[in-house]
Specification:
Elements (H helix, E strand, L loop, with lengths): L1 H15 L3 E2 L12 E2 L4 H7 L6 E2 L8 E7 L4 H18 L2 H6 E8 L3 H10 L6 E4 L3 H5 L7 E7 L7 E3 L9 H5 L3
Parallel strand pairs: 1-7, 4-5, 5-6
Antiparallel strand pairs: 2-3, 4-7, 7-8
Helix pairs in contact: 1-3
C-alpha cells in the first residue's frame, strides 16, 4: 500500500503539471472551520458527525488532499476530469480509500457557484464555499488551482503536517516514501 500511495501522489503531480502544489505554506495555520456537509454520504466520507463545523484535522483519514479552485478558473475546469479520475483511483483501492480523502474549497465562490461547479464537472468529493475569500487569504492568496497535501498527525500542535509544500525544496519524493 505504501508504494501504491507514493505512486499515486507522484502520478497526480505529473498529470497536473500546470497547477501549483503546496507553495510556501509550511508555516501557514490551516486550522479554519468548514461547515459540516448536509449530505449524509459526504459526512460519512469525511468521517464526521452532524456538528455545525469541522477543521481539517477532524477528517477521518491519514491524508487529505485539499484543492483550492474557482468556478471561473479555466485551468480548474480543464483539470476537473483528472482530479475526478484520481479520486476514482483512490476510492477503487480499499487501502487507499480508507486512508486518503479529497476536499475542495471554492475561492471567492458562493455556495451556488460551488454547487454549479460540482454538478457541471461531476466532482464526486465534498466542495466548500469561500465566498468572502477568508480561507483564501489565510492561505496567502494562492492561485487556482492549488493543491495542498496534509498528513493528519493527532497530538501535534496543529493536528496535521503539510507534505506537499515545494517538491524541490522539501524533497517530496523522499518524504512520500515514508508516508
Amino acid at each position: 500500500m505504501k508504494h501504491t500511495a507514493v505512486y499515486l501522489v507522484l502520478i497526480f503531480s505529473i498529470i497536473m503539471g500546470g497547477p501549483v502544489y503546496g507553495g510556501n505554506l509550511g508555516d501557514t495555520d490551516l486550522s479554519f472551520n468548514l461547515p459540516v456537509p448536509g449530505s449524509a454520504e459526504e459526512r460519512s466520507y469525511l468521517g464526521l458527525d452532524e456538528n455545525q463545523t469541522f477543521t481539517l484535522e477532524q477528517i477521518g483519514a491519514d491524508i487529505v488532499i485539499l484543492q483550492i479552485f474557482s468556478m471561473y478558473c479555466p485551468i480548474c475546469q480543464r483539470e476537473a476530469s483528472k482530479i475526478n479520475a484520481m479520486y476514482e483511483r483512490v476510492t477503487s483501492d480499499s487501502e487507499m480509500s480508507r486512508r486518503i480523502r479529497f476536499i475542495g474549497i471554492g475561492a471567492g465562490n458562493s455556495a451556488f457557484e460551488v454547487d454549479f461547479y460540482k454538478k457541471t464537472y461531476q466532482v464526486p468529493f465534498p466542495l466548500f464555499s469561500d465566498g468572502d475569500f477568508v480561507i483564501h487569504k489565510q492561505l496567502k492568496e494562492v492561485g487556482t488551482p492549488h493543491f495542498i497535501g496534509l498528513t493528519i498527525t493527532p497530538g501535534t500542535k496543529l493536528g496535521y503536517t503539510v507534505f506537499l509544500p515545494d517538491p524541490e525544496k522539501w524533497g517530496i519524493r523522499s518524504y512520500l516514501l515514508t508516508v
